[in-house]
Amino acid sequence: MNYDIVAIIVSCLLVLSYYLYLARKNRNAPDSSTHILNARVRKRWVKMIMDSDKKEILAVQTLRNSVLAANFMASTSILLTIGTLNISDKIGQWALKWHPFGFTHSFSPEIWQLKLGLLLLVFSMAFFCFSMAVRLFNHVGYMINLPEDPATDNNLYEQTSAYLNKAGSYYTIGIRSFFFSLPIVLWFFGPYFLIAATLGLIGGLTLLDKVPK
Q1: I need a labelling partner for 123 at 20 to 30 A (CA). Which of 76, 115, 185, 192 fits?
Q2: Domain limits for position 100
Q3: Is the pTM of this model over 0.85?
Q4: CA distance 113 to 62
Q5: What is the pLDDT of residues 142-152, one digit of tens each?
């Protein structure tokens, strides 16, 4: 039996179960979700900015901060991706050194390549999401400062809110990608570390996804 395969299947099922639980909870108690609360706050912020003639500087500064944060995280993602590629040629040597300290009973080069591939995929996904967040934040910067047009005012408000919430969603997915890289990193030390890290991550996400009181 390959314990690494069993561990990754169990880990994926745990994460899937958590998000199914979260989706059900959001439907039954939407006021308890930070994601729904954040979407409502961003929509109200767009309404406040577009209804006021003296909030342009506030809008520019807020969006600038969001762009800088997403840009920094995108840069971090690509650096981690490059770092992962640079160490890929040493994975065989490190595997032989780490293997005696792990809990696995057999060593498979293919499994170690799978671990590296998943880690690379997670960092690449984070880079894509943060880049898309930067793109959408920039679009919002143009849209939110347009002059009022009674014929299209409501449509513009809805579109701007949708762009901003989509940018926020991409940013959240990018952050979650970083979170999910931690269990994969610990997976290199053994399958039991992967399951333990996944359980710890789900516990942390439970606190993050709940509106603080």
Answers
A1: 192
A2: 3-208
A3: yes
A4: 42
A5: 888 876 665 55
